[in-house]
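tool_call: predict_structure(chain=1)
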Amino acid sequence: MLRPATSGHTVLTRRRDFGKNWHVKTSSWLWLAGLLLATVCAVAQDSALESDRFREELQPEGAISDWGRVFTPEQKGDLETRLAAAKAATGAELAIVTIASLKGGHIDDFAVKLFEQWGIGKKDENNGVLLLAAIEDRQVRIEPGSGRIGGNGNPHQC
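tool_result:
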């Protein structure tokens, strides 16, 4: 489009013309963005549900539940003996769980729910500790019961 400049020179400018149906184009983009967002949310929720279903099927196999196949039978036996001695001496219950994968879930959420599901430690003392390792995901989480948290509220100072 040509328009005269204030100085008397003609300036060539480009006019942005969306046409008569600009609102149709905009609403189509918004609809597509909403559909994409709904799809992403559905996929994320499905992976969380898969992780929850997997976790709910897990049952403790003693102090060490080695579904990730990390320990040899000798290592597992030795560690079970040490954990039993620590429980007898302190009253604290430590559960070590290895799994191959979190199945799309988050390790923090998985650990908290597994801790509650299994009831690790004495309920009135809240003296349990869960060590969870997801081998293929390369993630580890230590979930202490509130009785194992240090006096200053720091869960890392047991």
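agent: Strands lie at 2-4, 10-12, 64-66, 93-99, 128-134, 139-144. Proceeding to next step.
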